[in-house]
Amino acid sequence: MIAEAAGGLLQRALAFYQDSPRATSWLERHLARFAEPLRLAVVGPAETGKSTLLNALAGDEVAPLKLGDRQVITWYQGGSAPRALAYPPGGAAPWEMGAERAERRLRVDLAPLAGQQVDRLVVDWPSRQLRDVVLMDTPALDPEAGPQALAGGLTDADAVLYLVRRPHGPELDALRTLHGPPSPWAPPVHAMVVLSRADELGAGRVDALISARQVARRYRRTDEVQDLCQDVVAVAGLVASAGRTLSEPEFAALTALAQVARPELEARLLSADRFIRADAPLPLKPGAREWLLGRFGLFGLRLATALIRRGANTVPALAGQLVQRSGLGELRDAIAQQFSAREDVLKARAALLGLEVLLRREPRPGGEQLALELDRLVSGAHEFAELRVLAALRGGRSELPEELVEDAVRLTGGLGAGLLERLGIEEEVAPAELQEAIQDALWHWREQAVNPALSGTARRAAEVVLRSCEAMLSGNPAYA
Question: Cα–Cα distance between 335 and 330 in angstroms, integer?
């Protein structure tokens, strides 16, 4: 397994650099990460809804945390009770801050940090969604400071959600910079682009997410985007967050709005000014309407009132419908399939990339042997090749015939990294049946790997699928 091999190489590097405190500290941190949950950073320019989407993923209102008007990188991880630690630069002991849960909101007293330098905040939060993943909320990318100002903090992330309104131009330049120097063996399969304000792509219509998903699919197939990420997913982040944290008073207010004649309400929801103006003939006071607008947005208000009219007449019913229609489910599935199911591979990728940088920045006699071992490991790592092919298959770049793509995606772990998911078997079967299914797949892809009717690119993709079948047949624990 690549994770075990990477861990062994880092152990040898640790012995090699034992007299370098900086190098040993870095190596020890990466070794410890193999036993920790996946770290997923949420990154993007201002006004892309980073904290809002993080709240939707966490299931509670925990972000953002700011020191005055300044945001620092904040880690949210599972815990038995609310707790917040502030870590100063240089590795000094952290300060514990007062933290509490008020309904479904995090409250942290950050006043004692006034004037202090803080490297990061780490929050323990009792949440089922945070048991297996650490969410990292990051400061908005500053066009003047450049993405380099944040890139250092992302070395602690295993995977990245990069939020944009539209994935093109300067916004993609920032993502390219965040990846750092390109590596021929480690393409950015750890990154996913999220159209986080997807409702705006459909002009705020109730069916806006349908249009947004089409836009995401179109961008997913462009060379510019494929070179920078594994996937593109559309989400209405504000609606997702509001659905996950919907309260009884908010539901009552939305129900009151849904009772307004549809033409009148739709006219008021054409703009924020029309909706919150004091003389609007609506059942809620302007302050309450402004609060709802901030929580749901115009699209969310249109959608919520429409759903209530169609029968979503309880908090759980409306919350479930809002989350379902926000695109959050598709994003969580993509995170599970592409990141969580491959977390050991992604951690190994991050560790080996870091080792490559370490060997280059702190060269010393004898380091050539470590560099050779690193080259041998990454060149022979089937897990990395599998991720590259899977990204190409999803983006339509593999040149495999259409009738082979679905099978190739499944066998390379695109629908789940376990053995049954790869074979498309939905329930436990006898070992003999499993072996037969693997043998059938192996013979089929062995033919494709030498099929003269396929292009060279397609045959190379088929060879990777074939190696996946061989790994399953050999009982490789990574494919169990």
Answer: 9
pLDDT tens digits, 153-202: 577 889 999 998 877 767 777 777 766 655 555 666 788 899 888 887 76
The whole-angstrom separation of Cα 64 and Cα 55 is 9
DSSP symbol at 40:
E
C-beta separation of 290 from 276 below 8 A: yes
| Other CB atoms within 10 Å distance of the CB of residue 406 | 14
Report d(CA 313, CA 293) in Å as an integer. Answer: 20
CB 388 within 8 A of CB 461: no
Nearest CA to 369 out of 25, 12, 23, 27 is that of 12
> What separation in angstroms does the CA of 255 have from each of 242, 291, 309, 385, 429?
15, 15, 9, 52, 50
pLDDT at position 323: 94
Which among 386, 388, 404 is positioned nearest to 454, based on CA atoms? Answer: 404
Residue 145 has pLDDT above 70, yes or no: no
Nearest to 440 by CA among 400, 461, 469, 406: 469
Residue 334: what residue type? Answer: A
Q: What three-state secondary structure class fits 43? A: strand
Q: Which two tokens stand for residue 428?
A: 């436990």
Total residues belonging to the chain = 480
More confident residue, 165 or 362: 362
What SS3 state is found at 423? helix
- 414-451 burial, b for 16+ CB within 10 Å, e for fewer? bbebebebbbeeeeeeeeeebeebbeebbebbbebbee
Cα–Cα distance for residue pair 372/385, rounded to 1 Å = 19
> Based on the number of CB atoms within 10 Å of its own CB, is 312 exposed (0-12), middle (13-18) or buried (19 or more)?
buried
pLDDT grade, residue 15 (50/70/90)?
A: very high
HEC string of 186-210 equals: CCCCCEEEEECEHHHHHCCCCCHHH
Given a contact cutoff of 8 angstroms between Cβ atoms, the answer to whether 150 and 177 are in contact is no
Residue 82, H or E segment: none
The rounded distance, in Å, linking the Cα atoms of 28 and 54 is 28
Instruction: Give the chain's end-to-end CA distance (angstroms, integer).
Output: 12
* Alpha-carbon span 146 to 175, nearest angstrom: 11
Other residues' Cβ atoms within 10 Å of the Cβ of residue 156: 17
Query: How many degrees, rounded to 5, is the angle at CA 26 between CA 25 and CA 28?
Result: 65
